[in-house]
């Protein structure tokens, strides 16, 4: 049996890493902001199911599981069976008291359990009923993912809970609605719930699945072998059950004359946040980060300050963590970081690059050149693909990103990692290329 204990809500802390020194007239300030949440989540043995919590011990939460039931899920026939088993495993991982629903997705969205526009409350009885209902899942029809997400949004919104989360599984391309319809659905759902997305097999579109996860602040991955779905679903649900605080925003205040060039998450994955800003009062903006449990993430902030003379100092930005409330107020989570600018004539000081900034600048470039290299390879530009993927090998090697280096080695033959000298493999398994593309944004933390 598991020995789970529930700790108090997480405490947030923030650390800022930067070289604050600029040469005379220098304007660009870069900083890495590390946000850490500790003291929340589930602690104890991982053997057993988190639903051994007593009702009310964990944070209030609702989860919608969206299962692709399109015709292609019958090829091979085991795929649909694996999806049912994975969904059952996820249901078993729900702790008592969590609201949940199962949705069957084709060119329409169908309530599989509990039905009636409701969510069920997890306990031994409802978990068993839900698993019985999974037997009705069968393959047939098309794929319109936007309809699945909209139904999930309606069901999750019906629950008065703090955490709302979706898990979405697809095995094919979104062929029965336009890209614009899917984007509209994502805009409607953004901020209402987070969502992890998975592609099973190799007949789905990577950019669709990663785009869904990105828009809804969740994770994306490939499950090339359907037999691995149950383990992946269990892990996803365990992670979802560990979330404690929803709708956390990174609030950035800047003084007059200072502009924000970009804000991006750089660990554990690269995620562009700049265009997701919502105004939060004079010279302040909020950047969404989703739900948090016990974890740590890194963000890269780049601001442009007014040029100044040697000896001048200024606060370039103030970063805090807040949870915006529906009534317009905010809950301040107590963590704050300051980004400074100091102008100096010390050339050594002003030309030094913070190790954290240098590391994550390289990790962001690594994600970018992998995507570019794969796109060029698909387009038949061998020289261009070789150059980009060679640079990716060089960056992965230099930063110690061993997982990405292994994925790259399945697409290129590495001649010299240090110089980025590679040759494209003549034959690449589709699953290997899709895995590299899907996981291209995963980063490694900076070496301490």
What does this structure look like?
The chain is α+β, with helices and mostly antiparallel strands and 448 residues long. It is built from 11 helices and 22 strands. The protein has helices at residues 78-93, 124-133, 145-157, 179-189, 206-215, 229-241, 347-351, 355-378, 382-399, 402-408, 430-438; strands at 4-6, 11-17, 21-22, 28-38, 42-44, 61-68, 99-105, 109-113, 120-121, 163-170, 194-200, 220-223, 245-253, 259-267, 271-272, 278-279, 284-292, 295-304, 313-324, 330-343, 412-416, 421-424. Strands 6, 7, 8, 9, 10, 11 and 12 form a 7-stranded mixed sheet that branches. Helix 3 (145-157) packs parallel to helix 4 (179-189), helix 8 packs antiparallel against helix 9 and helix 9 runs antiparallel to helix 10. The longest helix has 24 residues, at 355-378. It is globular. Residues 1-7 and 42-56 have low confidence and may be disordered.
Q: How much of the sequence is in beta strands?
A: 25-35%
Global geometry? globular
Number of strands: 22
The termini sit apart by: 37 Å
**Helix share bin:** 25-40%
Q: Structural class from helices and strands?
A: alpha+beta
Indicate the low-confidence ranges by residue numbers. 1-7, 42-56
What Rg is obtained from the alpha carbons, in whole angstroms? 23 Å
Strand-helix topology:
Blueprint: E1 4-6, E2 11-17, E3 21-22, E4 28-38, E5 42-44, E6 61-68, H1 78-93, E7 99-105, E8 109-113, E9 120-121, H2 124-133, H3 145-157, E10 163-170, H4 179-189, E11 194-200, H5 206-215, E12 220-223, H6 229-241, E13 245-253, E14 259-267, E15 271-272, E16 278-279, E17 284-292, E18 295-304, E19 313-324, E20 330-343, H7 347-351, H8 355-378, H9 382-399, H10 402-408, E21 412-416, E22 421-424, H11 430-438
Parallel strand pairs: 3-20, 6-7, 6-10, 10-11, 11-12
Antiparallel strand pairs: 1-5, 2-4, 4-18, 7-8, 7-9, 13-17, 13-19, 14-15, 14-18, 16-17, 19-20, 21-22
């Amino acid at each position: 049996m598991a020995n789970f204990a529930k700790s108090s809500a997480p405490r947030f802390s923030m650390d800022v890493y930067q070289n604050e020194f600029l040469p005379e007239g220098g304007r660009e300030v870069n900083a890495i902001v590390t946000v850490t949440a500790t003291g929340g989540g589930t602690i104890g043995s991982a053997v057993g199911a988190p639903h051994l919590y007593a009702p009310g011990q964990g944070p209030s939460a609702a989860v919608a599981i969206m299962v692709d039931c399109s015709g292609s899920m019958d090829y091979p026939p085991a795929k649909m069976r694996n999806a049912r088993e994975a969904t059952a495993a996820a249901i078993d991982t729900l702790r008592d008291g969590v609201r949940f629903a199962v949705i069957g997705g084709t060119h329409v969205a169908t309530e599989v359990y509990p039905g009636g526009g409701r969510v069920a409350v997890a306990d031994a009885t409802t978990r068993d009923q839900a698993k019985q209902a999974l037997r009705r899942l069968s393959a047939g029809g098309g794929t319109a993912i936007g309809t699945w997400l909209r139904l999930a949004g309606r069901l999750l919104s019906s629950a008065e809970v703090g955490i709302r989360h979706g898990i979405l599984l697809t095995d094919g391309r979104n062929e029965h609605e336009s890209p614009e319809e899917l984007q509209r659905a994502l805009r409607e759902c953004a901020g209402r719930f987070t969502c992890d997305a998975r592609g099973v097999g190799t007949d789905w579109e990577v950019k669709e699945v990663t785009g869904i996860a990105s828009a809804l602040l969740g994770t994306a991955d490939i499950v090339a072998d359907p037999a691995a779905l149950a383990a992946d679903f269990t892990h996803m649900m365990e992670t979802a059950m560990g979330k404690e605080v929803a709708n956390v925003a990174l609030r950035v205040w800047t003084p007059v004359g200072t502009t924000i060039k970009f804000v991006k998450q750089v660990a554990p994955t690269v995620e562009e946040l700049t265009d997701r800003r919502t105004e939060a009062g004079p010279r302040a903006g909020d950047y969404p980060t989703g739900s948090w449990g016990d974890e740590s993430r890194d963000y890269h902030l780049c601001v442009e300050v007014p040029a100044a003379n040697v000896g001048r100092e200024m606060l370039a930005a103030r970063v805090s963590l807040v949870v915006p409330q529906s009534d317009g107020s905010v809950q301040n989570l107590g963590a704050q970081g300051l980004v400074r600018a100091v102008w100096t004539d010390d050339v050594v000081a002003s030309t030094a690059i913070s190790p954290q900034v240098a590391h994550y600048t390289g990790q962001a470039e690594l994600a970018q050149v992998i995507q570019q290299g794969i796109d060029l390879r698909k387009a038949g530009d061998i020289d261009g693909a070789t150059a980009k993927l060679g640079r990716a090998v060089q960056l992965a090697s230099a930063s110690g990103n061993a997982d990405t280096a292994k994925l790259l080695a399945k697409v290129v033959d590495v001649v010299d990692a240090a110089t980025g000298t590679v040759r494209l493999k003549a034959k690449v398994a589709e699953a290997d290329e899709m895995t590299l593309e899907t996981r291209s944004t995963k980063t490694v933390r900076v070496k301490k």
